[in-house]
Design brief:
- By secondary structure, this protein is of the alpha/beta class.
- The chain has one domain: TIM Barrel (Alpha-Beta Barrel), CATH 3.20.20.140.
- The protein has twelve helices and nine strands.
- It has a seven-stranded parallel β-sheet with strand order 1-2-3-6-7-8-9.
- Helix 9 crosses helix 11.
- Bound molecules: zinc ion (2 copies).
Length: 266
């Protein structure tokens, strides 16, 4: 299957990205890989929502900052570039940290339930049952929240940032198929896609993917009728190099067909 999109690209507007990275850097590599639709998805916390903490992550990555690239994005004609964000879950408001008025301004919106290193109390980190509970609550709050209809995809569902593969396997193993199916059924019903977060910094082998906790979740999501969106999560162009072949390997492992891909990614 030909994967022709990558909707999860960061630029220097994300505080954690390479400060030299610009949206322009991805155009030629994308074209060379046969990718004709990309989505810029920088980290975002809406200035209209009380910051979770008083640090730059929650106060600086606002709409004014993300829109600095908008003029360039609208002027790019070589491939289609979508103006979006990777929003955050706000555990205080039990909702996405974004107003509807702000959500309307983006072409696409990704929201993860798994930025627990940022938004969850530290003491839950190694406590698998509480960490799992936090992820489940965040997930349902996100898909049922006030900007639900604007959400394009759940970014890297349950793939906890900063967790080792072993820890993630242990956590995911505590979630039953029925628990996953309940929330993935609802995700499909609401027309929210499931992001297949496939890094492009190095070549991923089929064996590696087959033995990862991610494949079980993705298979259940497919069974529930979820549509998929691919994203490299590249924070620099060098992290995009193997994206296309990795994404196609994942699509093959999941036996995806064209109609399994979210409309926006086609
Ligand atoms: Zn993320
Ligand atoms: Zn990201």
């Amino acid at each position: 299957m030909n994967i022709n999109h990558d909707f999860h690209i960061h630029t220097s507007l994300s505080l954690c990205a390479d400060p030299a990275t610009q949206a322009q850097d991805f155009i030629v590599p994308a074209m060379e890989a046969g990718i004709d639709r990309i989505g810029i998805s920088n980290h975002f916390w809406d200035g209209e929502v009380e910051p979770l903490r008083d640090d730059g992550y929650f106060t600086m990555q606002n709409f004014e900052r993300l829109s600095r690239e908008l003029e360039y994005i609208r002027s790019e004609k070589r491939i289609s570039v979508s103006f979006g964000c990777e929003g955050e879950y706000d555990p205080v408001g039990h909702d996405v940290a974004m107003t509807e008025a702000t959500a309307e301004k983006f072409d696409h919106i990704l929201v993860p339930n798994s930025h627990t290193h940022l938004v969850m109390p530290d003491e839950y980190w190694d406590d698998i049952p509480r960490h799992k509970e936090f992820l489940m609550t965040a997930y349902t709050d996100i898909i049922r929240g006030k900007v639900s209809k604007y959400i394009t995809a759940i970014a890297h569902p349950f793939e906890v940032v900063g967790y080792s593969r072993e820890k993630l396997s242990a956590l995911v193993a505590t979630v039953s198929d029925d628990e996953f199916k309940r929330i993935f059924d609802e995700t499909a019903e609401r027309g929210i896609a499931y992001e297949l977060n496939v890094g492009g910094g190095r070549k991923l082998t089929r064996e590696e993917y087959e033995s990862s906790p991610s494949i079980r979740m993705a298979r259940l999501a497919k069974e529930c009728g979820c549509r998929f969106l691919f994203g490299s999560d590249a924070h620099a162009a060098r992290e995009f190099v193997y994206f296309k072949e990795n994404a196609e390997m994942v699509a093959e492992a999941l036996e995806l067909k064209d109609n399994d891909i979210a409309e926006i990614g086609r």
